[in-house]
Design brief:
Elements: H1 3-9, H2 15-23, E1 27-29, E2 32-34, E3 47-49, E4 52-53, E5 62-67, E6 96-97, E7 106-112, H3 115-122, E8 130-137, H4 142-150, E9 165-171, E10 175-182, H5 189-196, E11 201-209, E12 212-213, E13 222-224, H6 227-236
Length: about 250
């Protein structure tokens, strides 16, 4: 099988991240550094990442974590900031986050050593829904809501965002609480979407990722997924969105 797929099966990271590691010269096969895609791994080959030999992990683990604001969603941080992986330093298998959640944002983050599933869940063709509760400055006008639902051009991005589901759940004089459902994963997308229509995001929490809901899990707490949740998650990553049955997000009122 291809080297990056083998690395993902070993729980190193999702396949795209494994490709980056190969390009960076961090991977060897039988002692030879590999920097190009296309290398095949055969039975008996010795693969190492950063000098450590890897092998497929037979036990797959799936963690739902309520990431607090102030943690970086990476394995390490060049600025020395706390990362989500610091919470799982003593975990029996290597976990990696599925996608990212901004440093300033909180909420549901999935971590796993199932690199193949992570790859599928983050692939654009699967269109996995992500639901956010955003507290934004001021009150949104009907025009602003229409723009968000139609798609907006964010600063520094030439592509319009895909249509979003947007519902105001609370309005006060100085702020509004808004539920936003998207399936894209552009950098700081929800914040930039609201900036495009003249509003600043004050607080942002991801409350749902595909079939998984944050529920009453407190900041900094985590739990393992049930077998049913894992099955639903695999279904969500099994085929492109238009080819699988779906159900609308179960949003809080």
């Amino acid at each position: 099988m291809r080297l990056q797929k083998y690395m993902a099966l070993c729980g190193v990271a999702a396949r795209r991240k494994c490709e980056d590691m190969i390009r960076d010269g961090r991977v060897t096969v039988n002692g030879r550094m590999i920097t190009q895609m296309g290398t095949q791994v055969e039975e008996g080959d010795v693969v190492a990442v950063d000098g450590a030999v890897i092998s497929p992990e037979t036990q797959k683990r799936y963690i739902l974590y309520h990431k607090p604001a102030g943690e970086v969603t990476t394995v390490s941080d060049e600025k020395g900031r706390e990362t989500v992986m610091d919470r799982f330093a003593g975990f029996p298998v290597r976990l990696y986050p599925v996608g990212r959640l901004d440093y300033d944002s909180e909420g549901l983050l999935l971590l796993t050593n199932d690199g193949e599933l992570a790859q599928r869940l983050t692939h654009p063709s699967c269109e996995v829904q992500k639901v956010y509760l955003a507290r934004v400055s001021g009150n949104l006008s009907p025009d602003a809501l229409r723009s968000l639902r139609r798609g907006v051009f964010m600063e520094g991005d030439e592509r319009r965002t895909c249509p979003a589901q947007v519902r105001v759940v609370r309005e006060e004089s100085l702020f509004s609480d808004v539920l936003v459902t998207i399936h894209e994963g552009r950098n700081r997308q929800v914040r930039r979407m609201f900036e495009a229509v003249g509003h600043k995001v004050l607080l942002l929490r991801r409350v749902r990722f595909g079939p998984l809901e944050l529920g009453g899990l407190s900041r900094g707490q985590w739990r393992e997924l049930t077998q049913e949740e894992v099955a639903r998650l695999k279904e969500a990553g099994a085929a492109p969105a238009h080819m699988r049955p779906g159900r609308g997000p179960n949003l809080p009122s």
